[in-house]
Amino acid sequence: MHSEEEWQELKAAFAKTTDRIAALEKKVAILENENTQLRKELRKYRNENTPSGAIPPYLKDELQHATQEPKEPIEPKPNQRNARAAPDRVKKHFLEACPSCGGRLKKKNRTYKRTVLHLMPAQVENVRHECQAYYCKKCRKEVVPKIEGTLPNCKFDLTTAIFISYLFVAANNSMGGIRNMFLDLFGVGICKATISNTLTRLKEYLGDEYAYLEQQAIEAAARHRDETGWRMDGKTFWNWVVATKDAVVYKLERRRCHSNALKIVGRKGTVDVSDGYRAYNKLTGRKQRCWAHLLRLARNPEHPFAIEQDIGDYKRLVQGIGKIYHEAKDAKRKFKPCAARRKRFDKMLLGHLQSVCWHSKNSNKLINYIMNLEGEWFTFLEFAEVEPTNNRAERALRHIVVKRKISQQSRGDESMESYAMQASLYMTAHQKGESYANYLQHVVEEKLHAGGKS
Fold first, then answer.
1. If 296 and its partner were Cys, which of 24, 48, 232, 380 is the partner (CB 3.0–4.6 Å)?
2. Which helix (H) or strand (E) holds 232?
3. CA 118, CA 114: separation in Å to the nearest integer?
4. How many Å apart are CA 290 and CA 393, to the nearest integer?
5. Residue 294: which of 186, 352, 230, 367 has the closest Cα?
6. Most trustworthy range by pLDDT among 29-33, 78-82, 128-132
């Protein structure tokens, strides 16, 4: 039997323990809430929509393997000038006296050769064109000769306009950077409004080529689709991309909805490659869902695991999905496209998902993501032109994302549409290994010669 004093001490100790447990439970609840918020914040940067190019190299698991592999030599592109090319001219150097002591020198039967690539300073000419006016008695109107190599009502020639487009679209320079470059390198003062007007004026000559790229995307056997945010005068727009083997088309639209996803629809029997965004479900053709998105979703589970068994079951689920995917890729390399093989791998994937005996939150989310797109994961086994991932569209969007970080936004509908056209031409030329400046010049000159303004 305990005395009264002992009972009081036990009650006090129990009360202290109860208060401490309550304080600890409150602290645990606060920490769990903070952990949830941090995981949500982390998923903004590490989720299934985060391409590998957006992850720093020091965070990639395969960094050690990548550094051990030998790098392939980089071959120069066609028409690329370098110090190993044949010299344009030869300059000989002689000495009359020793540069150290000034003594007399005796010529040896030895010559040291060194090839150096020199950049010539740019020359700027301010040319005043005087066009003689004439009167045509047959047409009964006044005519004047055209000024070759210029855009109508533009203070720069076509070469300068193309150079500005290259700096803004291809090199991703800001308008302030272009202004400073013109002032520092050429001594030419140019304001941001003039740069914007020059870029917008090019839009008048790119409409037919842009429509041609759209037609190529429609007729392609396989199209890759994706979208990313864009800003126009402080409002959120969306940059939709359709990338094919021969063309890349950007469309800047106000909404992120299925109606904008259907702006470029392929012919019957073609395949659209995309991620799991629901707007692409409205596409009427065959679909191939991106395995890169699926594997990133699998490797970055959203919810914490409650028990150890959840971790083991989830690992087996992810490893099995990855194994089936790699077997499918090997089958595509070894065998010809076949619908029966696609159905067989669909059954393999379904059987593996049904074999999971313990479902956690992460397992349920991953299984639901796959089952909602059932029948659209192995379409690439049925068509030779179809790829299992949407990396082509993601590579096309990467340039736009970098531009968005630098220039932040567009300031008007005209400039936004003009940028979409020029970016489409640039990425198409880049994908084909061609020069964007030459491509743009050819398109504009063809339009000018076809009946452009004087």
1. 48
2. strand 222-232
3. 12
4. 11
5. 367
6. 128-132
- How far is it, in rounded angstroms, from Cα 39 to Cα 47? 11
List the alpha helices (DSSP H) in 269-390: 291-299, 308-334, 339-354, 361-372
How many Cβ atoms from other residues are within 10 Å of residue 171's Cβ?
15
Q: Give dist(CA 240, CA 232) in Å, integer.
A: 15
Alpha helices in 220-290 (DSSP H): 258-261
Give the global pTM: 0.78
- CA torsion angle 191 195 198 199 (round to 10): -160
In the block, which residue shows the tokens 């990639």?
60
Amino acid identity of residue 17, one-letter, is T
Nearest to 205 by CA among 142, 255, 158: 158
β-sheet bridge partners, residue 241 = 226, 250
Residue 222's DSSP bridge partners are 271
Residues 6+ apart with CB under 8 A from 436: 166, 169, 170, 425, 426, 429, 430
Q: Where are the domains of the chain?
A: 221-393
Sign of CA dihedral 201, 206, 211, 215: negative
**Environment class of 224 (CB within 10 Å of its CB; exposed 0-12, middle 13-18, buried 19+):** buried
CB 275 within 8 A of CB 226: yes
Residue 301, C-beta contacts closer than 8 angstroms, at least 6 positions apart: 314, 362, 365, 366
User: pLDDT tens digits, residue range 325-351?
Assistant: 999 999 999 999 889 999 999 999 999
